[in-house]
Amino acid sequence: MPLKARYLQTKVADYKKYLDYLIETGVLCCDNHYIEGKKSLGYRYADKFFNAELAAVQIPQIPRLRMTKDEKEKAAILAFMRDTRPYLFHWYDQNKLEVDKPAAMGYAMKVRDEKVLNEELWDIEDGKKKHPQQQYSSIQHNIEMLANKEYNVCFDDVGYRQHSCLTNLKSYYRNFLSYDGQGLCAIDIKNCQPYLINLVTKQDF
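Request: output the structure for the sequence above.
Response:
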């Protein structure tokens, strides 16, 4: 994964110390390939970690002495949305969303193993193939978050679209979800923005 130094610096000022430490301790590998204006240095987990199963570990809450500008903006948006649009949080706050973790992870393992054996099945995004193990780890992370009821609700700063581990979950895996013991269904409304605008502009809305 290419990591742009200028962007990393806006998040963690001394980021290079952390990357160097992870490389020295054998956690990460670097391709040491950099082309100015075209390609950043690429990093990935070392082999012994690349195929390792993720494990959920509880750590004590460590207070942050200073929030980055980006974190402050996201926190402000989240507070504003919770204050002005509490209905967007209602269903999460009830903590009734459940996931059949064994079934979901069993299916994820099956898909991963099939793709590992046949590279033609690999998904392609932006012209690049996505490694099945990386996809599996991403799905496992979302499943763990749902199982622990840590929905990680946030909003982007462009269209204030809501994001969470639920919205990030691939559509098929939503078959393993239930709410208050009941199965879920999905309704996809094409061109919903014009439809909703037409609805909210009615005088009796």
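The mean pLDDT is 88.
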